[in-house]
Design a protein that fits this description.
The protein is an alpha+beta fold. The protein has helices spanning 22-37, 55-70, 82-90, 144-147, 178-181, 248-258, 298-301, 363-373; strands spanning 2-8, 11-20, 42-53, 74-78, 93-94, 97-98, 113-115, 123-129, 136-141, 158-161, 166-174, 186-191, 194-197, 207-210, 218-229, 233-239, 246-247, 263-274, 277-280, 302-304, 313-322, 334-335, 343-351, 376-382, 396-410. It folds into two domains: 2-98, Transcription Regulator spoIIAA, CATH 3.30.750.24; 113-136 and 181-410, no CATH class. It has eight helices and 25 strands. The chain starts with a strand and ends with a strand.
């Protein structure tokens, strides 16, 4: 089986030659996955030189048609021989296009999106209305400064039900109470009833819980934010032709402006160009020594890299962004970019790569799908490195979709 690919921008023409059996179908699927990762969204496949096609081919192409439909893309088959044409017709394809009904997961095919033209930077943005008048109420739990003062006891931690609508982040652990969780406190994130954290007890893999119909996940938080409510605006973005990636600080700035310019909550599901973050190696609770966050002792307490990590992964990022480091949530905020008027606190759950839909998709369904169908790789506290010499580049995304809401109340 021979596959030739000719690409022009976001489109590609594949020419197939030979027998397209099950092994050839897998090779074709691998080729399509590579093209999608490179940003191709329109595919045309030439079957004129195909002498045989297995039913495995129809399954592969139907699956990739569904992926592309969610990405606002398309796939067309060209020059099918009579035998191959009959095979695809039996599988529901007509004139090289599948007629299998609507793709699941889309919630509003007619949402009105408008392009932002007032923000000249690395990304290009489309905005759409979410729930009219929606906003977030946020609880501030604990004090991140207290973590560095000495071991945390039970009275420094709070058990919380994680919100089914909204998000939470901080230093915590999934479980019932202090005795169960104290030795495992690590970076935690929860979005739409799906929660993940990286235990600090020497675990090699992140752990997670998904809400059931009767019970949301619960966690012990030593410090963090719990924000509940709805989202008033949606944003989708991609890199400009002259840019390699979109910095997280730019996405946060766009979200802050869209929410009114004071303080906003933001959830982004994006394809990562690389992430800059840290996670705890040891729990700050219990009877052990006090945490040390200065060099060289910091290496015993934090895991971090001198460069971006998790290149070409899919990530769920949640957090708060503000134009000021004052107010009820100020202790939770840190500088988020080169400007002096951008502060925030963001955590990320990192998954194996999956191309993202650019249509209007339900956040909860999208996030649960990642947890259910893809490998959870890591959970990180994202940082902006403000060292004057040799800083780590900030977290950046290739493309993504985000949910934005003003924070109407801090408790």
């Amino acid at each position: 089986m021979r596959i030739e690919a000719a690409r022009t921008g976001g489109s590609a023409l594949l020419r197939l030659e030979g027998r397209l059996d099950r092994e050839g179908a897998e090779r074709l699927s691998d080729t399509l996955e590579d093209l999608l990762q490179e940003g191709v969204r329109s595919l045309s496949i030439d079957f004129s030189q195909v002498t045989y096609a297995s039913s495995a081919v129809t399954q592969v192409l139907t699956r990739w048609h569904e992926e592309l439909a969610l990405l606002r893309g398309e796939v067309h088959l060209r020059d099918l021989s009579p035998a191959v044409s009959e095979l695809f017709a039996d599988a529901g394809w007509q004139d090289g296009v599948p007629h299998a009904g609507d793709v699941p997961g889309l919630v509003d095919r007619h949402s009105y999106w408008h392009a932002r033209v007032d923000f000249a930077a690395s990304g290009q943005y489309d905005m759409s209305a979410g729930t009219s008048g929606a906003g977030l109420d946020c609880r501030v739990l604990g004090d991140p400064g207290r973590i560095a003062e000495g071991p945390l006891g039970a009275d420094h931690c709070t058990r919380v039900r994680l919100p089914a609508s909204g998000f939470a982040l901080g230093v915590g652990a999934l479980g019932a109470g202090y005795d169960e969780c104290s030795e495992r406190l690590g970076e935690l994130i929860a979005v739409g009833g799906c929660a993940a954290y990286f235990p600090s007890d020497g675990a090699r893999m992140a752990d997670y819980q998904l809400a059931s119909a009767e019970k949301p996940p619960s966690a012990l938080l030593a410090s963090g934010l719990v924000c509940q409510g709805g989202y008033s605006q949606l944003v989708r973005f991609s890199t400009r032709p002259e840019a390699d990636a979109v910095p997280l600080s730019e996405v946060a700035s766009v979200a802050l402006q869209a929410a009114g310019g004071r303080v906003a909550g933001l959830v982004v599901v994006g394809e990562a160009a690389g992430l800059s973050g840290v996670k705890l190696r040891r729990s700050p609770a219990g009877d052990g020594p006090s945490p040390r966050f200065e060099v060289p002792g910091v290496r015993d307490w934090l895991s971090f890299a001198p460069e971006r990590t998790h290149v070409m992964t899919t990530t769920v990022i949640a957090g708060v962004v503000s134009s000021s480091a004052k107010g009820p949530g100020a202790a939770q905020l840190r500088p988020q970019g080169p400007t002096e008027r951008l502060f925030g606190h963001f955590h990320a759950a990192v998954f194996s790569y999956h191309p993202l839909p650019q249509r209007t998709v339900g956040l909860d369904d999208l996030v649960r799908g990642l947890f259910t169908n893809h490998q959870l790789l890591d959970v990180l506290h994202l940082l902006w490195d403000d060292r004057a010499e040799d800083p780590v580049p900030e977290s950046a995304l290739v493309r993504g979709v985000g949910w934005i809401a003003p924070i109407t109340h801090f408790d």
